[in-house]
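[Automated response] Your request has been received and processed.

Submitted sequence:
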Amino acid sequence: MRTCFIVFSLFLQIQLQAQREDKVLTQKLQSLVSGFKGDVGIYVRNLKTGKTVTINADSIFPTASMVKIPITIGVFEKIENGLLAYDSILTYYDSLLYPGEDILGSFKNGEKISLSKTLMLMITTSDNTASLWCQQLAGTGADINAWLEKNGYHHTRVNSRTPGRETNRSNYGWGQTTPREMGELLVSIREGKVVSARASERIYRNLIRIYWDGESLSQIPPYIQAASKQGAVDRSKSEVVLVNAPHGDYVFCVITKNQEDQRWVRENEGYVLLRNVSRILWQHFEPDSKWKPAAGMEAWR
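Generated structure:
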């Protein structure tokens, strides 16, 4: 009897998902990804209508720098539990350096910086040195992953510098997720449901001030607020975006893996996909908009 109930419940879930599918948009995006040299996952949800697009939305992909959203959540959980102070002053040491072009990595040994600015750098400029420091302050990937599991994110995990996740790190890098989970995590932040209402608001404010705006964000008018986080490694490009659009908010997450194109140029197939998906979504949800990127804007990216 119980087996019949489970089968019936699954049938209802499938039917409900079919009813919520935006078939027109799904067809547009499926045509877009056809022929992509690599694997693609896409999740879209219109928060007003509930309509969705799911293309490999529950498959596991690398997060790359999108993992910094779970990391910032981990830090804010410690703050709300009284284990860290948002306005505390930290001391930077050379041992924290992650080589690259990070702002924090240019600090001299012994310089001071507030935790609030470190959190901002992690999200706004995707500073890797700041991010690894914040991961440590959050109790490492182990504590972050425990929060994710407790709150229903069964596939999103921090892998790097996290005991027991060496194999996952080998397969996916710093972190792993699904397009659906990453998209819905951003929705939960928007709705004030992550850690606390005030923590969610602070996190969201950081997410709307992104320096790296040359891909998905470049296809959304600059006067429209959007929260986002991008990720990129050699064989994977990704971005999660929640657009506060005039006719209703919508969220989307696009992730690739196993890309043949590993060039670090604007014409990389993954970057082109991010821009194209974002443009199609804006035009689909805001059909009366006459906005287009200004001629020559690509020169500033």
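Summary generated for your ticket: Residues 2-20 form the longest helix (19 residues). Residues 255 and 295 are 28 Å apart (CA to CA).
If you did not submit this request, please reply to this message.
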